[in-house]
Amino acid sequence: MLLLIIILVIAFILSGFFVVQQQTNAIVERFGKFNRIAKPGLNWRIPLVDQIVGRVNLRIQQLDVQVETKTKDNVFVKIVVSVQYYASPENVYKAFYLLNNPERQITSFVFDVVRARVPSLLLDEVFEKRTKLPTL
Which residue among 23, 79, 106, 122 has its CA within the 20 to 30 Å range from the CA of 37? Predict the structure, then answer.
C-alpha cells in the first residue's frame, strides 16, 4: 500500500514537467489567470493548479493574400501579396491575449492598403510599382 502511494506521488510530481520546443513559448495560467510564459526547454508546472493554455510560434511565418481590384483604366487585376510576420519574444503575451485571429487581421489590413492604392494607378503603373505598393 505504501509503495502504491509513493508511486502515485512520484507520478503526480512528474506530471508537472513539460517541454517547450525551440522557437516556441508556452502560456501558463494558474486557476484561469495568466501566470507566466514558459521558455523553450524543460519546464515545470504545479499539477492541477497550472495549465498550459496555448503556445505561441516565434518563427517567421508567411501569409499569401490574394486581392482582386480594379485599376484606374478599368482593368481588374489579381494581386498576390506575401506578408512575412512573427511574434517577437518580448510581445508573446500580447500576441496570445490581444490578437484573436492574426491571419485574418493581417489579411484585412492588406485588402485595405491594396484597394486604397491600386485604383488610383494605371495598369502599367501597377506593374512598374509592384514592389513598392505598400509604401505608396
Answer: 106
Residue 134 bridge partners (DSSP) = none
Residue of 110, 19, 20 lying closest to 57 (CA atoms): 20
Same domain, 44 and 96: no
Helices vs. strands in the chain: H and E counts, helices first: 4, 7
Is the pLDDT at 23 greater than 60, yes or no?
yes
Instruction: Give the domain extent around 117.
Output: 61-135
> What distances in angstroms separate CA 112 from CA 59, 64, 68, 115, 120, one per listed residue?
26, 15, 12, 5, 14
pLDDT surpassing 70 at residue 95: yes
For residue 7, CA distances in Å to 1, 17, 94 come to 10, 16, 40
pLDDT confidence bin for 103, thresholds 50/70/90: very high
